[in-house]
Amino acid sequence: MEIRAATERLDAIASHETAAMLWGIPTLGAPDHHQLTRARRTQGTARYPGVVVHHSRVAPGEHTMIRGVPVTTLPRTVVDLSRRRPFRAGVVVADAALRRRCPRDELLEVLDSCRGWPGIARARHVAAFADHRAESPLESISRVAFHHHGLPTPTLQAIIGGLERADFLWAPYRVIGEADGLTKYTAPEVLRREKLRDAGFAELGFTAFRWTWRDAYQRPDALAYRAEQMLVRGGYRP
């Protein structure tokens, strides 16, 4: 395996996006190079063909093996990415890690061990904001869009009418938000089911609105404004 060979050649362990890939955790974008970490007392970065090596301290309990490849633990991977990537990219990783039953207290332990490192304040914010109920990167970046706009915090994966489950629910305002992957090429049968689902929500007194990856990723402010207008119709006062 190319990654294993790189770790052996450079006396380093897989970290950051490369570690996330080995853990099966989604990331917001992928780097052009493998990301490794070499245990050192001082921080820095070294570049080699196809590889970026980060220098930092790695505690004994912050690395493990996956399929014969040395790799940072899942909590350390989340913290490393959250320190170096924008907030919403960190949330994508942290939500997915918690969904994989990564204990939040282990995240906090790594954060404490990295106290004073660059970006650690942002990583703490990510850890506090992360929610295991977000089921996809789309839901994660949507949460960030609503949060940055100052909207009320929605309930995730809420059961409506005892049967249907909504991605986002603002119960006081009777508004449901659905983050889906629908595109103009989506099969007609899927569109029909979604229309019936929304009609069912309406019968229960809820107003549902939907958005796609393009909305949340490329136009987060517009998405948040749209959500705000839906809430205002339900009685919300910004």
Protein described:
The chain folds into 2 domains: 2-129, no CATH class; 137-233, VSR Endonuclease (Endonuclease, Chain A, 3-Layer(aba) Sandwich), CATH 3.40.960.10. The mean pLDDT is 94. It is α+β, with helices and mostly antiparallel strands and 238 residues long. The relative contact order is 0.10. It is built from 10 helices and 10 strands. The chain starts with a helix and ends in a 5-residue tail after the last helix. Helix content is 46%, strand content 21%. The strands form 3 sheets. It has a 4-stranded mixed β-sheet with strand order 1-2-4-3. Pfam families: AbiEi_1.
Report the principal-axis shape. elongated
Query: What structural class results from the helix and strand content?
Result: alpha+beta
**Could you give the order of strands across the largest sheet?**
1-2-4-3
**Pattern of helices and strands:** HEHEEEEEHHHHHEEEHEHH
Helix content: 40-55%
- What is the terminal separation in angstroms? 53 Å
Please give the radius of gyration in angstroms. 20 Å
Helix count equals 10
| Tally of individual domains | 2
Average pLDDT score:
94
Largest sheet features: 4 strands, mixed
Could you tell me the strand content as a percent range?
15-25%
Number-wise, the strands total: 10
Model regions low in confidence, pLDDT < 50 over at least 5 residues = none
Organism: Natronosporangium hydrolyticum
Pfam family, one: AbiEi_1
InterPro entries: AbiEi_C
Domain AbiEi antitoxin C-terminal: 12-125
